[in-house]
Amino acid sequence: IMSLFGEVPQATPVAVFKLSNDFKEDANPKKVNLGVGAYRTDEGQPWVLPVVKKVEKIIVADNSLNHEYLAILGLPEFRSSASKIALGEDSPAIQENRVGAVQCLGGTGALKMGAEFLRRWYNGNDNTKTPVYVSAPTWENHNAVFANAGFEDVRPYKYWDAEKRGLDLDGFLGDLESAPKHSIFVLHACAHNPTGTDPTHVEWMQVAEVMKRRKLFVFFDSAYQGFASGCLDKDAWAVRYFVTQGFEMFCAQSFSKNFGLYNERVGNLTIVARDSDNLKRVLSQMEKIVRVTWSNPPSQGARLVAITLNTPELFAEWKDNVKTMADRVLLMRASLQAKLQALETPGTWDHITQQIGMFSFTGLNPKQVEYMIKERSIYLMASGRINMCGLTTKNIDYVAESIHETVVNVQ
Amino acid sequence: CVLLVTSAAAPSSQRCLSWWGGVQMGPPDPILGVSEAFKRDTSPKKMNLGVGAYRDDHGKPFVLDCVRKAEALIASKQLDKEYLAIGGLGDFTKSCAQLALGADSEVLKSGRNITVQTISGTGSLCIGANFLSRFHSASRDVYLPKPSWGNHTPIFRDAGMQLKAYRYYDPSTCGFDFNGALDDISKMPEKSVIMLHACAHNPTGVDPKPEQWKEIADLVKKRDLLVFFDMAYQGFASGDIDRDAWAVRHFIEQGHKIVLSQSFAKNMGLYGERVGGFTVVCNDAEEAKRVESQLKILIRPMYSNPPMNGARIAATILNTPDLYKIWLEEVHGMANRIIKMREQLAANLKNEGSTLDWQHVIDQIGMFCFTGLKPEQVERLTKEFSVYMTKDGRISMAGVTSSNVGYLAHGIHAVTK
Predict the structure, then answer these.
(1) Angle at CA A332, nearest 5°, toward A329 and A336?
(2) Catalytic machinery residues of A
(3) B85 → chain A, closest CA residue
(4) Residue among B362, B119, B383 at smallest CA distance from B261
(5) Cα of B303 to nearest chain A Cα, Å
(6) How far is B20 from chain A (nearest CA, A)?
(7) Residue limits of the Aminotransferase class I/classII large domain (chain A) (predicted)?
(8) B185 pLDDT exceeds 70?
């Protein structure tokens, strides 16, 4: 029988999930998963934050709570406290009532809402030709989010210098200078994914100067606040600096990693506008977009985060839990680098401790990555990206030895 | 498209300094906006008959007992919070499909359906609309019943489809315009998409009878139309899960390869948890795999993967026999309360002295009642009696209680006599 869907082609699977699948099916007892970006304890286990467990009990015990619809834009106490986390409690923009937010389905959902809004309302109406710049490399889903929102021109901006294994500042600034006016730039607020390489404060200031002068749109992706340095405020420096520079901007926040709430889809699109009137109209149009996508967002995760952020003892406990995760990552970085140096593995490995956040761009090439997977059952992305959280005190020797063997035997 | 409403106060200089100077104020949502207006009203007698959220006889939100029990069970398991797969929780999608199609469905046995977890009904329709837009090249046309849920139109339009309508509601009878529907369906171009409300039509509460469904199914097959079922009220219409899914199952038995949206917002009271499913019934399992891969490609840039909490609750209920039994009873209970309110409203209107025919209040099914009130009458009902409802005359029976049904009848009589 002729099917309406007879011509639907098989799509290639999303790489990072295929990697996890392959890892699952690998029978090697020594296997290590350095693929998907989720925190793991030193026992290699997922970690539900102690503060989250506590707040879940509070929610269960509260008989006044029900499962009614949230407002279209989400839970108000979540939105405002989440924006405060990004911009700072004392942010002048918040005090001037020109900061608003949309509760979204994770960081992805926040990016999507921002993208859909920009396509409809930025740089004219329904201007699908506005260039959208994403870093080279970047989280692979950035491209699809903006393309699916209708943008026809999603391009890379220079970012990672493979040779020196660091930021290509000149290339970055050059692309900012040559980008068409009003182009949208997706900036990683901290702990750049996948390279773990962030601009310094001075470098951020240079970026901001060009963006202001050339009227480029600032769209921050903040998925790792707290996770990079262990300190929320430190990790928000770039976002806050841009606010002080007077930008109208978006910041897509994810609470997947720093709250360990991956599957509850807790995200927030923070909007900084020129004034409250512009903000009001923007939010009214955001509602329209939300209504045709998911109507209103899920309540559980937002409730959890809101209670935590708005209760001083719980807030303190959360910051502590975040620091625990960040510290373990820093420890693994230091360990791995030390072991590679001790093994006298060819090449330089300082980038492992210089990079920040969950990921490290090892510098391993595709052939070497394939070797690691096939011969050593160590799963990492073809780009050479590893998730530091996949390392534990028990497997780090095996991983270090494997990297050593790979670099020596495979070019 | 957005109504152009110029914002009054902002000085033009402020607008020039902002990227957003050209952003018009969007009008309030016709349905959700009603609740917002209701909240602002200070009258002690106010009634919110706008959004379709079930209320108990005290006018309070109702958390189902099976839901509380499921939550307790889940809490005791101390599960992690790792990302779900893009297509959602397997335990949920399997039982979600089973609920709609029936446990003995040949479709399930042959594995020729793909069911993904979605952000409730809206999310399901959004994915469905975008999937059709991308892969149903044969037609851009989506035929909605006249009238349909207000949000259907912008969802499909936003996905790039063209909206058309077929006759459905007959205002002269407050019932189903069967002949009008058949006539319009007979003229639909082949391969067009036809949207059918599986049960408890929103907003009218008017459903085809089984014999009518049979004729519709035949005609739709003759016209070679793609059927998109929206089932947001399974269990809520008659109180019986299987009865409410009859039309969906009949179409499948007749060979239609339908696409189906399901919501658990109402029948499990999981509104804010956003629990839903989207199903494509394919030719065979191989095709289902291809379709699945493309659905994932659509979902990933929207929100990556769906939220766990509600799906876990729904799956627990559907897969735990004791809880499932309680659920069936509670759904039956909710449907029954609504049926009772319908009867009381009709009786009260008669007692008020209304000479109009209110039989449709009893004949219509599900959460909503299409009263037949005109916009001016609705406006009066809201202004003079603080009764909030949508402009089309739709009331949510779920908002009616034994203590306020008299007041409601009084108000309706006052504006219609």
Answers:
(1) 145
(2) 139, 221, 257
(3) A17
(4) B119
(5) 4
(6) 6
(7) 30-403
(8) yes
Q: In whole angstroms, what is the distance from residue A145 CA to residue A151 CA?
A: 9
CA distance B231 to B252: 14
Return the residue of B nearest to A121 by Cα.
B23
What confidence tier does B1 reach under pLDDT thresholds 50, 70, 90? very low
Query: Chain A partners of B63 at a C-beta cutoff of 8 Å?
Result: 66-67
Interchain proximity B20–A10, CB inside 8 Å? no
Check CB contact under 8 Å for A67 and B24.
no
CA distance A368 to A373: 9
Least Cα distance to B149 among B103, B94, B220, B201 occurs for B201
Cross-chain Cβ contact A291/B32 below 8 Å = yes
Among all chains, which residue has been given the structure tokens 């519709």?
B216
In the numeric block, which tokens belong to residue B370?
Answer: 């299409």
Which pair of structure tokens corresponds to residue B133? 């837009």
Q: Give the CA distances from residue A358 to residues A186, A227, A398, in Å, rounded to whole numbers and listed in that order.
A: 19, 7, 20
What residues have CB less than 8 Å from B23, skipping those under 6 apart? A121, A278, A281, A282, A285
Grade residue B25 by pLDDT with cuts at 50, 70 and 90: confident
Give yes or no: B266 in active site: yes
Strands B169-170 and B175-176: antiparallel
- Give B 109-168 residues with CB within 8 A of chain A: 119-123, 126, 135-138, 151, 154-155, 158
Hey, what long-range contacts does A368-377 have (CB within 8 A, 24 or more apart)? A368/A406, A368/A407, A368/A410, A371/A406, A371/A409, A371/A410, A372/A402, A372/A403, A372/A406, A373/A22, A375/A406, A376/A30, A376/A402, A376/A405, A376/A406, A377/A26, A377/A28, A377/A30, A377/A31, A377/A32
What is the ipTM, given to two decimal places? 0.94
Query: For residue B307, which residues of chain A lie inside 8 Å, CB to CB?
Result: 105, 263-265, 298, 300-301
Q: Tell me, yes or no, if B214 is annotated catalytic.
A: no
Q: Does A151 touch chain B (CB under 8 A)?
A: no
Surface of A (259-318) touching B: CB under 8 A: 260-265, 273-275, 277-278, 280-282, 284-285, 287-288, 291-301
Full strand arrangement of the beta sheet holding A154-158: A99-105, A266-272, A249-254, A217-222, A184-188, A132-136, A154-158
Please give the radius of gyration of chain A, using alpha carbons only, rounded to the nearest integer.
22
Q: Return the pLDDT at B20.
A: 77
Query: Residue A13's pLDDT is what?
Result: 73
- Residue in A3, A104, A281 closest to B20 by CB: A281
Judging contacts by C-beta atoms under 8 Å, the chain A residues touching residue B123 are: 293-295
d(CA A197, CA A207): 15
Q: What is the pTM of this model?
A: 0.94
